[in-house]
Amino acid sequence: MRLSLTFIAACFSLTLCCPSSASAATAVQLSCATRGEVMIAWFKYQLTTMKWGDHFQIASGSSRHETASGKPYRVTTFRNGDDLVFFPRKEKYFLFYAGKDTADRCTVEESQTLPVVSLPRYEKLAQDALS
Questions:
Q1: Higher pLDDT, 24 or 103
Q2: Does 79 reside within a domain?
């Protein structure tokens, strides 16, 4: 399944505030038991976005950890309190929803790189600004 245009537009609009960060993003579509389809996108400068249904969350940065047996994993905490846990060696994703102790295991449906989109310049006429 392809990434939704709404998700791509929402991710791109976040980069407009900082033009230097408007570059391609890596995205993954996850299938999670509780939320269904969840889209995760990673941008420059430690910006991560998560979209499911009509919901959209952002996160800044991630932390690196190791299990007791030495397996590395990364945790990204979103503004709503959800944690995305990623085990890079096995490419496994888990979502811990805010306030819940059990993980929702998610499977990867699709991975891709989002292209940079150049939008046409829009100039509002002075007379239109008054209305």
A1: 103
A2: no
